[in-house]
Design brief:
This protein has about 775 residues and is mostly beta strands. Helices cover about 5% and strands about 45% of the residues. The strands form 17 sheets. It has a 4-stranded antiparallel sheet with strand order 1-57-56-55, with no helix packed on it. Strand 20 and strand 21 form a beta hairpin. The relative contact order is 0.07.
């Protein structure tokens, strides 16, 4: 079955995945998000749940038992990075507004996307949506930088668009009139219906108790009384004029929220030099203010039926308090600590993530996020916020991560403070830097040991590239002995891989250097027999010396990622016998030959169980055949749940086919149709799902096969209904017979072999019951 068909069938079978899927096995082609939800951008509620918007999705807290559900692009949302959410009680719809001005309407029946504002090329300037008025009727109103927009929830069509020439921050209805907060002040219209001509609106100024021409930050109705934020002071309409209610020097009004028993107004420092506050009011006046840990940089707050206050805070994330006066409770989620992903590694089903980073020119970003581990659906994180030793060592920019293949050690390379060895058995650390190892500081930054690449050879020696160190190749043997090596040219060594011969291939981050190949000849303590080879644009087929990453495939070939696509160096090529030319893969498109991904910057290369190449780029992912000359699949923001087209890393669990994808917006994974095969069939080979029930129309996987084995599926009479070859150690059947129709109800026999004939008794590996 074609991989693309497999993916399409799975998505069509159920794109809106229940969040509980994270606790169960994925189907082939199905996606899962692994996002951090420790940022609170916006908050709203219905009768049963409180909804929070985070950078990468939404989560809902059930009021009755505080259980949590997560929703993201994987589950059907159109985008990541929501900026605002509001619930419309009359229509039972959650309005989700994104930073790019796309809008989702989340109904119980599914998601309806409104992309008209985003895609409208007639709007000049910013299209930002600052607020949405939901009211109780069928229409909602978007307050935008360019004006006010009406939308009908019943017809799902837009009404008028009123261009104002000034940003609109809020809209409301009160006592038969309409009010509009803008950058030029507060406006009112008292005619029948809403006039879409801004010139017909009356500006309210000093004759109405407001400072003339001062900008308005919002307008709301609370307990049948009108409140407005003007020039960052709170005003209340009383009979025939606005009266000043509250003002906090040095602060601006971030929001006004009328939901619940109190009117809530969030104040923030103009320079963020102090913590914000949320003030609470009744119609009689101010009754209290809440600071504590719930309101450091408040963005919004609501109050539920029990008087609990739910805070969206930019700095300290989503929290809630027992009432408007005291207490603050933080959410504890089973998610990564942040959405930064630099490198991913998988060992025995456990996923390891280094959450540091460097700039494109390999300067420090000073990320403190640490590293994360996903073990049996449980996330744990390790950084200076929860590990005193990491804070004491001042560790930043956790750039590389490598679990030891034969022990419980995990090695983490910091681009700031050397090497960390973490013991999974007791969560203890050992730190290596220039004081207790042969790691060296960078030239020009001698206090910082910048580890930019790590790989382990067959003997258990850890090889590292120490960026800009005088001796940038560093090795630590299995018994703890150290060695370091000077190189003939270029000390800006980064990514490193080790081929089947034990040669170390280093990418040099330089426009003039290219590749360095190093061979210690198996005598790490004898530099006299060391060999070096330099490969660059002058002596090879590298199109550029701007290299990004390296990978070794199942055939032993070395794939080199560049800013102009990949280059392949054959496993049989000896780089020390003469210049290794390498070659660029040619592909045909519309009858024209070109080089594979020649216009793409490769950011990551991974090799799956079928030896297919997964290329991460700044424009999504390209999955290519083993030779690279055929496109198997392509994933980007528009055709998949990828949250961002900029891919930071890709790693594959070869036991089940899960592909983990790091993006600039966080981590996602999907189940692919290839797993690593072995020389012989597993005696416990099986098919999944089995039985295949009538409601299931996705791919059927036959697992536990020998590598690249031939597969035949027959009915009980021996008639062949399907033939294929395993992708690594797994074959895929779409449940159809040779005529393209779904196979009839019955038991089907699966034969598989690595031999030319299927007539051996052990060729029968499993049976499948298919029910129509």
């Amino acid at each position: 079955m074609d991989f693309r068909v497999s993916l399409t069938l799975t998505l069509l079978a159920g794109f809106l995945v229940d969040p509980a899927i994270g606790q169960s096995d994925l189907r082939i082609g199905q996606w899962r998000s692994h996002f951090a939800y420790n940022e609170g951008i916006s908050v709203t509620q219905d009768d049963d749940k409180v909804y929070y918007a985070a950078r990468t999705g939404l989560f809902a807290v059930r009021k009755a038992d505080m259980s949590v559900e997560f929703f993201s692009k994987v589950d059907g949302l159109s985008e990541v990075e929501a900026s605002l959410i509001r619930y419309h009680p009359g229509r039972d719809v959650l309005v989700v507004i994104y930073t790019n001005s796309n809008v989702d309407l989340v109904f119980p029946s599914g998601v309806f996307n409104i992309s008209d504002i985003l895609e409208n090329n007639n709007i000049v300037g910013s299209k930002a949506i600052n607020d949405v008025y939901v009211g109780l009727g069928r229409k909602i109103y978007f307050s935008c930088d360019f004006g006010l927009v009406e939308f009908d929830l019943e017809t799902r069509k837009f009404g008028f668009t009123m261009f104002t020439g000034t940003p609109v921050s809020g809209f409301t209805e009160f006592d038969g009139s309409y009010y509009l907060s803008t950058g030029q002040g507060l406006y009112r219209y008292s005619g029948a219906g809403i006039a879409p001509n801004f010139g017909a609106w009356e500006q309210l100024g000093d004759g109405h108790g407001l400072p003339a021409g001062a900008p308005s930050q919002g307008v709301v109705v609370y307990e049948n009384q009108l409140f407005a934020a003007v020039d960052h002071a709170l005003y209340a309409w009383e009979e025939d004029a606005f009266l000043l209610w509250d003002l906090r020097d040095g602060h601006y009004i971030e929001f006004m929220s009328p939901e619940g028993q109190h009117l809530k107004v969030g104040f923030r420092c103009f320079e963020d030099a102090c913590n914000g506050k949320v003030h609470f009011y009744t119609v009689e006046g101010k009754v209290g203010e809440h600071g504590f840990d719930c309101a450091w940089r408040p963005l919004y707050a609501i109050e539920d039926e029990e008087g609990r206050v739910w805070y969206a805070d930019e700095q300290r994330g989503p929290k809630y308090a027992g009432n408007y006066l005291w207490g603050c409770f933080a959410f504890d989620f089973n998610t990564p600590w942040s959405n930064n992903v630099n490198e991913i590694a998988v060992k025995d089903g456990t996923v390891f993530v280094a959450a540091g980073g460097v700039s494109d020119t390999y300067n420090n970003r000073n990320y403190p996020d640490g590293f994360y581990i996903l073990d049996q659906n449980d996330w744990s994180f390790f950084n200076r916020t929860n590990e005193p030793l990491l804070a004491q060592q001042d560790i930043l920019d956790y750039l590389r991560i490598l679990p030891h293949p034969d022990s419980q050690y995990v090695y983490i390379g910091s681009y700031y403070a050397g090497l960390i060895r973490f013991d999974l058995r007791d969560s203890t650390y050992r730190f290596y830097d220039q004081d207790n190892s042969l790691l060296q500081g960078a030239v020009g930054d001698s206090l910082r040991e910048r580890i930019a690449g790590m790989a382990m050879d067959a003997a258990g020696t850890l090889w590292m590239s120490c960026f800009l160190a005088p001796r940038p190749i560093v090795a630590m043997t299995a018994d703890g002995q150290w060695a370091n090596f000077a190189v003939p040219s270029g000390t800006r060594l980064a990514d490193v891989v080790i081929d089947r011969r034990g040669y170390k291939w280093f990418a040099i981050i330089s426009a003039s250097e290219g590749l360095l190949v190093f061979d210690d000849n198996g005598t790490i303590d004898n530099p006299a027999d060391d060999r070096y080879a330099m490969i660059n644009t002058s002596n090879s087929n590298l199109p550029t010396n701007l290299l990004t990453n390296l990978a070794v495939d199942r055939d032993g070939d070395i794939w080199v990622g560049t800013s102009q696509g990949p280059v392949v160096f054959d496993a049989a090529t000896d780089p020390f016998a003469g210049p290794a030319q390498g070659f660029r893969v040619t592909v045909e498109q519309d009858g024209i030959l070109s080089y594979l991904l020649e216009e793409e910057q490769i950011t990551s290369i991974a090799v799956d169980g079928a030896n297919r190449k997964w290329f991460g780029t700044r424009n999504g992912i390209f999955v290519q055949s083993p030779a690279g000359d055929e496109e198997i699949a392509r994933f980007n923001e528009s055709n998949s749940p990828l949250p961002n087209n900029i891919i930071t890393d890709i790693a594959i669990n070869h036991e089940n086919g899960d592909v983990y994808i790091g993006t600039q917006s966080g981590l996602v994974s999907m189940r692919t149709d290839a797993v690593r095969g072995r020389p012989f069939h597993n005696v416990n080979a099986y098919a999944f799902p089995n039985p295949v029930r009538p409601e299931y129309d996705g791919p059927i996987a036959i697992k536990g096969l020998a590598e690249d084995a031939a597969v035949k599926i027959t009915d009980m009479a021996g008639t062949v209904v399907f033939e294929t070859r395993a992708l690594g150690g797994q074959a895929i059947w779409d449940g159809t017979a040779r005529d393209g129709q779904r196979a009839q109800t019955g038991v089907y026999l699966v034969f598989s072999t690595t031999e030319p004939q299927f007539d051996k008794p052990d060729a029968l590996v499993t049976k499948i019951l298919l029910v129509n």
